[in-house]
């Protein structure tokens, strides 16, 4: 059942949403040359166009929190949280990550705070490779029932060029060298090897008689 809303309230709510979205993108995408945002509402979907000087397909971990910001804008139902978390996991893994971990903590349902963890792929938690293989970020969302904490950990893939991941491989990485192609002869070939020369016989000394 559709809820009737006046045009004045609709314009005010749309303006507040665009202002908060613009403030969020200005803070998160400042390094990418963010210059503005356009929100287009169609009968089937809502399109959000981000204007930036550095145009890239994947902004990094900031786009993950943008997805959370849109999905958790009015988090009242547990289904919205599950849909947002699984959508983020799918988006990260499809972008080429090795693994992902999303932890949401706070008053998810009821007055008692708890945390939920969503994991997909491979994730390392100890050792020196964590410093350059795992990208971690934490954000806080202020909702009506309290503050909701979101922690996202992304494990980058190994990239020898260093563009999408670290150049240094993991300590347990095993590289298999492909065998060289062996050229097979087209016609049978026979070759004769020279006989080995016999070793010369050393002369034995004459027996010496003792008086």
Automatic annotation (TrEMBL):
Against InterPro entries, the record matches this protein to: KH_dom-like_a/b, KH_sf_prok-type, Ribosomal_S3_C_sf, Ribosomal_uS3, Ribosomal_uS3_C, Ribosomal_uS3_CS
From the UniProt record, which GO molecular function terms apply? class I DNA-(apurinic or apyrimidinic site) endonuclease activity; RNA binding; structural constituent of ribosome
Keywords carried by this UniProt record:
Apoptosis, DNA damage, DNA repair, Lyase, Membrane, Ribonucleoprotein, Ribosomal protein, RNA-binding, Transmembrane, Transmembrane helix
Domain Small ribosomal subunit protein uS3 C-terminal per the UniProt entry, residue ranges: 83-154
Q: Name one GO cellular component term.
A: nucleolus
GO terms for biological process, alphabetical: apoptotic process; DNA repair; positive regulation of apoptotic signaling pathway; translation
Q: Which PANTHER family match?
A: 30S/40S RIBOSOMAL PROTEIN S3, SMALL RIBOSOMAL SUBUNIT PROTEIN US3
Q: Which family does it belong to?
A: Belongs to the universal ribosomal protein uS3 family.
Which protein are we looking at?
A: DNA-(apurinic or apyrimidinic site) lyase
